[in-house]
Amino acid sequence: MPISGNQDLDEPATAWHPRIPALLLGVPALLFALITWQVVADGPLVRLDERVSRGLVHPDGLSEFLSDLGNVQVALPVLAVALGHVALRTRGTDRWWLPVLAAALVMALVPALIVPLKELTDRPGTPAVPPATGYYPSGHTATAAIAYGSATLLLLPRLRAPFARRALLAACLALVLGTSYGLVRHGYHWPLDVVASWCLCAVLLSSLWLFLRRTAPPEQSRPA
Fold it and tell me: CA-CA distance, 52 to 62, in Å (whole number)?
């Protein structure tokens, strides 16, 4: 496509389809609503979920270790270090506190959303855990996804080396998937509990990313 004389050469890198935000927020929100409806109604997706879980559950030391990556005591310090690092590196710049505050608020939304949903759905746990309810959606999955995901979104624009950026993304993905695998493998959660948390966290992290993209300085607003 020809470029006019007054067109910024960086514009193609920043242009995106206006439907992208709607897709980032709408698709996972729709999937979360569908899964929640199936859980509440005890629909066919729940029965499939239970059959899949029976084939996956095999408690062992590795699965317990991985599931612990979603503990508040493990995930929150990681986010706190990222928040502190960004605050120290950007302090004194215009609205330096906005990204830090936004990430902290998104993390605070996890219990504010998860706890009422657990009470409303009142889903029992797998046969591998003591009889109880309130397992949907997975709080450990949400804690891991938001803590590690928010830390990644804050740090990513400040990394210039492509290898470092890819390594950070890979580490975040490994931590979240590892936590999810451990929870299902050990029987702490049904697979749908975990998938529903993925969907909910996709909405929260997409919202955070859109906010950071809008408020970032020009030199940090166009990550590859």
Answer: 20
Residue with tokens 């929640």: 36
| CB proximity list for 28: less than 8 A, separation 6 or greater | 198, 199, 200, 202, 203, 206
The span from the first CA to the last CA of the chain, in angstroms, equals 21
Cα 222 to Cα 13, 143, 155, 213, distances in angstroms:
7, 27, 14, 8
Beta bridge partners of 124: 133
Q: Which of 57, 186, 204 is nearest to 143 (CA)?
A: 204
Cα distances (Å, whole numbers) of residue 32 to 92, 94, 169, 198, 200: 40, 37, 24, 9, 6
CA distance 2 to 209: 31
**Taking Cα atoms as reference points, which of 199, 92, 94, 101 lies closest to residue 154?**
101
Residues 26, 14: Cα–Cα separation, whole Å: 22
Q: Where are the alpha helices (DSSP H) in 122-161?
A: 139-155
Residue 81 tokens read as 């270090």
pLDDT score of 75 more than 70: yes
pTM: 0.88
DSSP conformational letter for 19: T
- The answer to whether 122 touches 133, Cβ cutoff 8 Å, is yes
- Number of Cβ within 10 Å of residue 141's Cβ equals 28
- One-letter amino acid at 81 equals V
Predicted confidence (pLDDT) at residue 105 exceeds the cutoff of 90: yes
Q: What is the mean pLDDT of residues 173-198?
A: 98
**Which of 215, 71, 188 is CA-nearest to residue 130?**
188
**Which two structure tokens, joined as six digits, stand for 99?**
């990204």
